[in-house]
Structure formats: C-alpha cells, structure tokens
Amino acid sequence: MCGIVAAVAQRNVEGILLEGLKRLEYRGYDSAGMTVMHRDALTRHRAVGKVAALEECLTDAPLPGRAGIAHTRWATHGKPTAANAHPHHSDDQVAVVHNGIIENFEGLKRELEADGYTFTSQTDTEVIAHRLAAMLAEGVTLFEAVQQTLGTLGGAYALGVMSPQEPDVVIGARQGSPLVVGVGIDEAFLASDPLALLQVTDRFIYLEEGDLVELKDGGHICIIDRQGQRVERPVHTFEYADGAASKGDYRHFMLKEIFEQPAVIRTALEGRLGKTGVPAESFGPDAPGLFARTRQIQIIACGTSYHAGLVARYWLERYAGVPVQVEVASEFRYRHPVVADGTLFVTLSQSGETADTLAALRFAKGLGYVGSLAICNVPGSSLVRESDIALMTHAGPEIGVASTKAFTTQLVALMLLTLALGRDRASGDEQAAMVNALKTLPDTCRQVLLLDDDIEALAQAFAEKRHALFLGRGAHFPVALEGALKLKEISYIHAEGYPAGELKHGPLALVDSDMPVISVAPNDALLEKLKSNLQEVRARGGQLFVFADEGVGIDDSDDDVQVLHLPGVHEALAPLLYTLPLQLLSYHVAVLKGTDVDQPRNLAKSVTVE
Ligand code: AGP
Predict the structure, then answer these.
(1) Which domains does the chain show, CATH number per domain?
(2) 571 CB under 6 A from ligand 1?
C-alpha cells in the first residue's frame, strides 16, 4: 500500500528519500514520486512503475535540497499514471503525499472547483493540496493550515506536507494509516514504516491516532494530539539489525523468509516454554488475570493471518476446551455480534497496521469483550499499542508480500496460547509431549526444507496449469486454504482450498486431467477419510500431488499420483509443518512462470486502507 518518506536535514535529502522509497517497495505500489525544496521552490519528479523509473528521472535531473517528501502510490482513485502519482501540488504553493482514502473528497472537490481550483489528477488526495493552498492564502502558518484542513477530511490518512512559504518545514499527520517519526541528530524524518529509515536512524516515535507533527530544520520535532495539546511521545530504538531487511544470497525475499523459519520459530519459542506447559505470564503480566476470566475466544484477522486463526480454532477447542469463533475482519466490523460473557478478543496480524483488523479491534472495544490480545510481528504497531495485551511473533521483518514466516510464527504463538489456556484441562503428560514437540520443531522444519529440490521438480507440473485444488481435513483444511492463497497470489494460477470431505458436494465437477489436486495427508485420525476422498479424485482422472507422513500407505505406483514424504511430528504441530512444502511449491511455480515473486501485481504488503 502507499508508502511515505519525508526528511528535513542539514544535507541533501534526495538520496535519503530515494533509498527510503526502495525500502518501502515491498509494501506494493504502482508509481512513485518526490518533491524537494530547492532554492525555496517545490521541485518534483513522478514516474509510473518501479522506483527505478523515478531514479532514472533523478539521474537525468537531480532534485537537490534539504527538505523533501516522497511517495510510492498504490492506486485507489484513478489509474496508475504520472498525473495521479504523488506528491500532489497546488499552484506550487503546497505539496502533499498521502496514504489512505479521503472518503468525502467529491464534495470537497466540488467546493474547490467552484472557488477556481483546477484539478490535474483523478485522486482523492489532490483536494488536500488545494485546501491547504486556500488556507495559506488566508495568511495562516503551514501547521495551522494542516490542522484546520484535517478537521474537514473524512476517512483515513497519513500525510506529509510542504510549502515554500516555510521551506525548512515538513508537516506530518496520521489518522487511520501508519506514520512514524525518525529521530536523527539535528535532522528528522517521517515514514510509513521504520524500515524505510534504518539507513539514517534507529530511533523512532510512533505517532498516535490524530497526531500532527512539525519537523523543522535542526531536528526540531513538535507533536500535538487530537485535542490540540502539545505532547511528548516516547522514542523507541528499533530492534532489528539493518541486515534483517536485505535478501542476502537468496534470489527472492520470499525464499529467504521460507528458509528463515526454523530460526524464527526457535526465537518465537524462546523464554516462553515451561518444563511441562506454557505459563500465562509468557503473554505479559496482565495475561493471567485476563486468561482466568476467559471462557471463549473470538479471533479476527485477514488473509493468511485469518488462516492461522482457523488452525487455532481446532487447537483451542481440542486441547484447551475453549469455544472459538474465527472471522475475517472486513466482515466482523460491519456485523452486529452478540458477545457471550467472558469472550477474549484476539487479533492476528503480521503488520499490526491492517486497516480492517484495526477497525475491528476499535469496534470491539465497545461490545463487552473481556479484553483484547494482539498476536503480531511488528512491535510498536497500532494493533499492539491499542490491545490490552500482546504477544510478539518475533519473525523479523517480512518483506515478501506473500506471508510465510509470519504465518508459521503466528501458529507457534497460537499453540502457546492453546497450552497456556489448556493448563488446567489437558493432562500433564499431554502438555509435556506438546512442549517437547515444540522444542524439536525447528529441527523438524529444517528437515522439511531439505525437500526443496524435490518440490522444485514437482513445480514443473504446474507451470502450464490455469487452476489447482488444495485439499485437507481437520486442522489441515486451513493449511489447504493457505496453500491455495500462496499459489494464487504469487503465480496468478487460480487455486481453491477445500475440506476434502466437501469435494463431492460440488468441486469434484472440476476435476479432470488438467486439474492438479494437492493434498496434505499427515498420519492423523482423519487419514482414512482423506484417502477415500483422494480416491474420488483419481477415479475422475485427476492428477494428485500428496504431501504425506511416511507409511500412510498412499499408492503412488501409477503416474496419476506423486507423493512426497515428510518427517513425523506430533499430530498437533502437523499443520505448521505441512505448510512449508506448500510455500515452496508456490514459490517454485511462480519462479517458473516468471512473475514478480516478492511484489505480486495488484497486492500490497500492508493493507492500510479499507
Ligand atoms: C498473505 O500472503 C497476504 N499477503 C495477506 O493475505 C495478509 O496475510 C493479509 O493482508 C493480512 O495482513 P496482516 O497479517 O499484516 O494483518
């Protein structure tokens, strides 16, 4: 989704802004632009496509200056064209970059047109530039102009604003979209994400909803809150090493992140396992009280995180005896849920900035939940700050748009939650067996990743296909959903995940020799049922690709079945393990198809608009 970088420094900021945009590329975008204050005038370049296209413009005609704003745009209002790319200017008096959606822009636009302003883009953002210009014409400061303009905007925004009337000032604001302040030595920055600024600082202020910030020459930072009061926000030191956000020797971030899973799973477990269980304190000092009052759970998430929630439902109900509901955030936030007493509200999110998930949390606050728990990968994110308690997944920066290590570490966190809530219910032996299985999980994952070459060979069979079906049963049904999501988002092959028992209720009609059917078949209580479902596929001429436990007895002597064996694992952890081959399969199919693996078309890493 759109990315913002801004800087006010005592050196040329063009390179800082450009590097920041490159570091935000992972968020997904379709055009890029930059405005720099040069000799008290706004100078701008905008280009469609990758940041490299903007870089070419800068090579041909540099934009030197000590204050600037830059942007990567993910189109919402108007096609990806240079005219729609940000920054948007009003008569060279104001420049604006914006992430979010101004929902009342049409009315504002009509008013501004009536006042003589000419619009040069189809975006909602341009109204902000013209409104600010109108305010400045009345003689107010830039800060006051932004403050007054914000009062007229509906919807969500993170903004960066400049004007030649105050050439060494950049104003930022956030409401519903992320924005951080980078604190330098005698210089200050803004960005959608700390990763954009790690080349210049590791100290950040996370702006609160409704905050307005003024950055001035000399590193001066002034924040006022939504009540208009001057506030001091804490400065956090970013915990990741800068190298964590680079590809290293891997061809793609996604492949690097798949192979990081054994290590990050180990980190996610560190210090959280007791000898025979998981203490509630692992979730923070307030968790024991909250968990003691928890009778049921409502899980809310989007996309891959939603799939993690679906797996957790099987775990929490079976091993902790806690009733669980799971729903996608975009639906939940507009429902009228009936909240049973003692329901804990759990959100799952890699980024902690997903607009729908955040809105669902805010909506839930007035509904009588016993409390809220965020399971999240980004410390300091809005979701973490706004939840009662939070458990960090410690996966490190995930740059590939397709979520991999974030998903498996979410599953680890959810298994920890299951064990913490199930302490009094499950037998000591059962808990101890699961704790031991978790301890050896990183090594078991490592063994699965050794299948990479075999999976790459298997991928050949998919390169020419247009559709695929993924099947699983029980807690492996969400694994099938996740496998299908991975394949469709990075290879653009249409894929669906189904509970295998549902085949005969419709999707079997699609099965023929052109429809690859991928199944996960761990050795669990539903194995025999699954095997019957797979026979239904074979009987219709379908091509089967099965990831299975050793010795499950799936006959692969005929050409229509290929089986890859995975090492044995505690039944409860199988969904986590069986996810890995599906990630690798999607990856290799996408590489064969030549798609943009890390930044698939039309998608954004962090979906900060509704
Ligand atoms: C996963 O591969 C996706 N890119 C997407 O579904 C993602 O999981 C979803 O947008 C939720 O993001 P979050 O975990 O950051 O909230």
Answers:
(1) 3-242 (3.60.20.10), 247-448 (3.40.50.10490), 451-610 (3.40.50.10490)
(2) no
